[in-house]
Amino acid sequence: MRSLVRGLIALAALSAAVFFGLPSSPASAHGTLAMSTPVNGATVDAPVASVELYFTEKVQDSATFSITAPGGGRVDNGWEHASPRPLDKPVTEYFMENGKFEPRQYRTGFPARVRVAYLPGPGEYKVDYQSTASDGDPVHGTVTFKYTGPATQAPAGWAPPGEQPSAAPVPAGDGGGSTWLAWVGWGVGGAALVGGFLIWRRRGFRRPSFGRVPVVPIAVGGVVVALIGGYALGRATVADAPPSTTPAAPAAYSGAGGHQHGGNGGTASVDALGTSVSDQGWTLQPEHRSQARGSTIDYTFRIVGTDGQPATRYAVVHEKPLHLVVAGRGLDGFQHLHPTMAPDGLWSVPLKLPQPGAYRVFADFSLSTADGATTPLVLGADHLVPGDAKLAELPAPQTIAQAGDFLVSVEGAPKPGSTVPMLFRVARSQGPVTLERYLGAYGHLVVLREGDLGYVHVHPDAELVDGAIRFNVSIPAAARYRAFLEFQVDGRVQRAEFTLDLS
């Protein structure tokens, strides 16, 4: 009797292992929406020419997008792929590996730029998207923004698109990781187990025996076989079913809201970068920490991994594999340089600093792997020019700045913790200005925060907006900032500087 009880206990343990211990197929989650410009739920007070949706992988060419105005009509005018850029904050997705969920971070956003034909009036605009991820799962959702600016006119000859993209169908077999056949298998096995146990418990039950064949152990073994067989049948059916759109993971942590398939784009983080010399296992290692006032040195450095080996594989972003930005602690002395790299990973660039003081050197780059994945990073290191530094107050905020022979005006008021479009218009008294592309864009804007020199590198629209350079600027928090705009006219790069007082 005791041996039988021990056998039943072992059977119960085996059943629990069968029910709960068998690992499922690795879960897949790719291509989710990481952030958007404008930010989901943001209020925009100036006309926008496009909406950019940043996914954790490049969306397929067959993806569909629509923008619906408050009155219900569509105002989108097609879409296009745009250049990848670092996400404001990494997005974490979860994958089932070896029986447990493992996090995987994505730090690069692959934008789909949806063009806005016109804005018929104030109100809430909806941006619907639908695509298919590389793992076969549907990716769909909605981003909204509230527009409070003036109405704009539709382009001549423009006609609204057809029907909106329909919601992605939910694949069959989605039932929290099991199909009805799995439950049938569990039910048959469980019924056999319970029935056998109740029969054994009946008073007066006499164990049958055919010769010396032990019937009870055979019956117990049969229950186990039925149980495992039924469960395996259900599991096989699940494996053959189309992938589920229901996330089979705990609440995913991510600075951008824990996005999963089918979810809406969350509020994008607007953290500043470059306040650390190391990030994600990579360190900026300068060979020079100081230089004499007015001297020119070859500023050399490496990007070194945790194994002590320098990185040598970089992705080209804005026509360069690495951008080096230098600025004084007083937010003056700005320089935007482009070093060259030797085969051993040593970068070098001539650097001249005419004024004494403390400087910050930012390396803005994206590392590339053999499979094409990229890791965008901004690392910062201090640099010193000995001498008596003159401390000066930041210039007062103004909407017009001088840049050589040009006057640059800015439109749009940035807001802490949100993304706001800012337009820069370039003019001169001698006649019209023809802006030229510089490093693949009509303008480049770097925004630095007073105090810790937090680095906010924003990207412009691909095309001019009514003759102006438009950026979507994400300000991290209430503070004072200095914005450095670079643009090119007649083959020469000019720079305009603005103070943003958001304290």
TrEMBL record:
Positions of the UniProt region annotated as Disordered: 152-172, 244-263
Coiled-coil spans in chain: none
UniProt entry keywords in alphabetical sequence: Copper, Membrane, Signal, Transmembrane, Transmembrane helix
Transmembrane helix keyword on record: yes
Signal peptide bounds: 1-29
Record bears the keyword Ligase: no
Transmembrane segments: 180-200, 212-233
Domain CopC: 30-146
Pfam families: CopC
InterPro entries noted in UniProt: CopC_dom, Cu-Rt/internalin_Ig-like, Ig_E-set
The protein's name: Copper resistance protein CopC
Organism taxonomic ancestry: Bacteria, Bacillati, Actinomycetota, Actinomycetes, Micromonosporales
